[in-house]
Amino acid sequence: MRVLGLETSCDETGVAVYDTAPGRGLLAHALHSQTALHLAYGGVVPELASRDHVERLVPLIRRTLDEAGLGVADLDGVAYTAGPGLVGALLVGAGLGRALAFALGKPAIGVHHMEGHLLAPLMEPDPPGPPFVALLVSGGHTMLLEVAAIGRYRLLGETLDDAAGEAFDKTAKLMGLPYPGGPAIARLAAGGRPDRFTFPRPMTDRPGLDFSFSGLKTQVLLAWQRHRDEPDAAADIARAFEEAATETLAIKCRRALAETGARTLVVAGGVGANRRLRERLASAARADGFRLAFPRPEFCTDNGAMIAFAGALRLAAGLADDAPLHVRARWPLESLPALPAG
Ligand code: KG4
Ligand code: ZN
Known about the structure:
By secondary structure, the protein is of the alpha/beta class. It folds into two domains: 2-119 and 299-335, Nucleotidyltransferase, domain 5 (2-Layer Sandwich), CATH 3.30.420.40; 129-294, Nucleotidyltransferase, domain 5 (2-Layer Sandwich), CATH 3.30.420. Helix content is 41%, strand content 19%. The chain is built from ten helices and ten strands. The protein has helices spanning 35-38, 46-68, 87-104, 113-119, 164-174, 181-189, 214-227, 233-260, 275-288, 304-316; strands spanning 2-7, 12-19, 25-33, 77-83, 108-112, 132-137, 142-149, 152-158, 264-268, 291-293. Strands 3-2-1-4-5 form a five-stranded mixed sheet, with helices on both faces. Helix 5 packs across helix 6 and helix 8 packs parallel to helix 9. The structure holds 5'-O-[(R)-(carboxyoxy)(hydroxy)phosphoryl]adenosine (KG4) and zinc ion. Zinc ion binds next to helix 4.
């Protein structure tokens, strides 16, 4: 089954075609990032995001189909991100996706953006299967989930305030770095010393799998205000922040694996592209003997491939949405229907 995937939940327009036939997989994908559009505002401006999706989506679909050597009539279904996200932006992909499917007489399905992230590592060669623990770390979410089957998700812990990516973004902003802050902090941190500053590992000193990142940002602010004029302060603070954030995530992942007895950890979402996080989890995996799976870095951040893939799995299992258009700004992952067994 060849499925077109459309991602328009935030500031990336992503398009891909995924083929569920054995040996096929991802046929083509294309991405347009709006980073430059929002740069001057220090964050995503929802209305500008929606308008840009309107302009980019059709040309990107054409490009992706060309690259795959397909015409629209070769598609067997359409998947689009239905939430969570910016409602205006979501409506662009949902409206176009449903209209295209209707015109073709093919099924369409609204995909949960975080399920897209969660399943992205399964597009890679030799993918792990459930049961596993998933760490989802994006700009809007930080979650640990127990995945019993595709579509059966149990929330183990989540952030009580800022998401992990948001912590990177806000830390970058207070240090005068451009949006999005994650890659900017990571670049700066690469040249910094890990031991000049030490920031707390929030909520690791007590049991539980929830996170809290807003206090960490305050600690960074205090250090930045006191030391900003000293040589290498920015790089050293960025490095200490990255150490604190990634170690906190790694501690909770190990705890989640121990509590569930799972032997596999899957990591996805924008912060999953962070090199230091990958290194830390890889050494934890060696020490504890669990399997670790990441998507390639470009599929950690938002993309159409993960939506095409998650949608293709659901459409191939016979699931599809009725004609009315539904998008959701908030959407609990645990409310998804599970795929039929087998
Ligand atoms: O998954 P994503 O593209 O969008 C959401 O669904 O939110 O995640 C974006 C987030 C941003 O907060 C960005 O700063 C962060 O992921 N990010 C990173 C890195 N690359 C992106 N954070 C840390 N290190 C990175 N290399
Ligand atoms: Zn995302």
